[in-house]
């Protein structure tokens, strides 16, 4: 009996990851999906936005915080954070609904903020005070840039990767990296009478560090690319940065202490902030227009690209709230234990 009991335990251990990756319903994975992380269950849920049903749950490893999908919607990447204890990105095959081998980032510990731009995965490495990019085509980390700031956390990369923004929580700053043309590291002008110094192609990076409020964490860039709004958790304020002058042009006393995520609506008319509740601001007047006390937003904010809905991670309630952006009211929810990072995935013609 003891032998067969042990065999039973081993069989269960082998089957459990497969059970977790099976669809929660009999539905097929939709071509368009909401991806939602569970910190509690260490899983990624694939949600059909039409029915708000979970169609699959897939293991993603310890302490998942942020998730992003590739541009073809076939792969998801998840940061295993651990406040610097971990150094991996989980890779999820969204077509076959299974976990792939982890990406080991080595000394780039504490990965957190993620985005997928120009065919690459861009990530922050908080404990390493750095930003990096991973190229799935080559399977290599092909770029690293230190910030010299404490808790480099969230990330925004412009298309073309000529400008990168990141928030540095404990330094109370925002870093702007601008890519320059010409040889990397070459002087602005050669000494008199001498030709330009040789150097590798690809240009260099100019770094601008902008002081903002305490606990600068969640932020977003306006759809027109002219401003960055930064939620300052320690101050309960929002810093507005002019991206042309690279300076703070306004500080909004929005009363959002503990705020950790901020997003513009796709049309740029409103800004949503999670700060224990969901706070909505008018982007033009820079004033609070609504507080949704029934939406206990504590994590990720995802905007539906057509501007119809927003999805809000509500940790205390163990669900992702669905907000109608026309009415600015909750219209539904999806049960997720300890939700946080959210992403939008769209399969292209070669997908499902």
Characterise this structure.
The structure is a single chain. This protein is mainly beta. It contains one helix and 28 strands. The strands form seven sheets. The protein has a four-stranded antiparallel sheet. It has a four-stranded antiparallel sheet with strand order 4-5-6-7, with no helix packed on it. Strand 20 and strand 21 (270-274) form a beta hairpin. The protein is globular and about 70 Å long.
Keyword list:
4-stranded antiparallel sheet; disordered N terminus; 352 residues; 1 helix; mainly beta
pLDDT average, as an integer? Answer: 90
Topology order in helix (H) and strand (E) letters: HEEEEEEEEEEEEEEEEEEEEEEEEEEEE
Apparent shape: globular
User: Count of DSSP helices?
Assistant: 1
Low-confidence region ranges: 1-26
N- and C-termini, Cα separation: 46 Å
Radius of gyration: 21 Å
Output the structural class.
mainly beta
Q: If strands are numbered along the chain, what order do they take across the biggest sheet?
A: 3-2-1-28
Largest sheet: 4 strands, antiparallel
| Helix percent band | under 10%
Number of beta-strand segments: 28
User: What share of residues are in beta strands?
Assistant: over 45%
Q: Report the oligomer.
A: single chain
């Amino acid at each position: 009996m003891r032998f067969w009991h042990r065999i039973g335990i081993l069989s269960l251990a082998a089957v459990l990851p497969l059970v977790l990756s099976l669809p929660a319903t009999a539905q097929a994975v939709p071509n368009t999906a909401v991806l939602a992380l569970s910190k509690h269950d260490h899983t990624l849920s694939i949600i059909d936005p039409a029915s708000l049903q979970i169609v699959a749950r897939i293991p993603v490893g310890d302490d998942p915080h942020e998730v992003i999908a590739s541009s073809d919607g076939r792969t998801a990447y998840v940061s295993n954070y651990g406040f610097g204890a971990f150094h991996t990105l989980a890779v999820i095959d969204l077509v076959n609904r299974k976990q792939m081998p982890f990406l080991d980032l080595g000394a780039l510990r504490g990965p957190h903020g993620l985005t997928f731009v120009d065919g690459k995965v861009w990530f922050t490495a908080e404990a390493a005070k750095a930003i990096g990019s991973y190229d799935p085509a080559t399977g290599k980390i092909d770029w690293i840039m230190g910030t010299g700031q404490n808790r480099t956390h969230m990330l925004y990369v412009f298309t073309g990767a000529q400008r990168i923004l990141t928030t540095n929580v404990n330094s109370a700053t925002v870093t702007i990296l601008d890519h320059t043309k010409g040889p990397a590291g070459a002087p602005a002008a050669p000494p008199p009478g001498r030709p330009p110094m040789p150097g590798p192609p690809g240009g260099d990076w100019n770094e601008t560090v902008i002081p903002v409020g305490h606990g600068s964490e969640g932020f977003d860039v306006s759809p027109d690319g002219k401003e960055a709004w930064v939620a300052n958790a320690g101050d309960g304020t929002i810093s507005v940065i002019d991206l042309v002058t690279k300076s703070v042009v306004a500080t909004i006393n929005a009363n959002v202490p503990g705020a950790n995520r901020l997003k513009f609506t796709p049309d740029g008319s409103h800004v949503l902030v999670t700060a224990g509740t969901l706070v909505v601001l008018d982007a033009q007047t820079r004033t609070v227009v609504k507080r949704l006390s029934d939406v206990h937003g504590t994590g990720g904010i995802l905007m539906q690209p057509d501007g119809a809905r927003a999805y809000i991670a509500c940790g205390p309630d163990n669900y992702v709230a669905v907000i109608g952006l026309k009415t600015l009211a909750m219209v539904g929810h999806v049960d997720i234990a300890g939700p946080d990072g959210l992403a939008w995935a769209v399969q292209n013609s070669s997908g499902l």
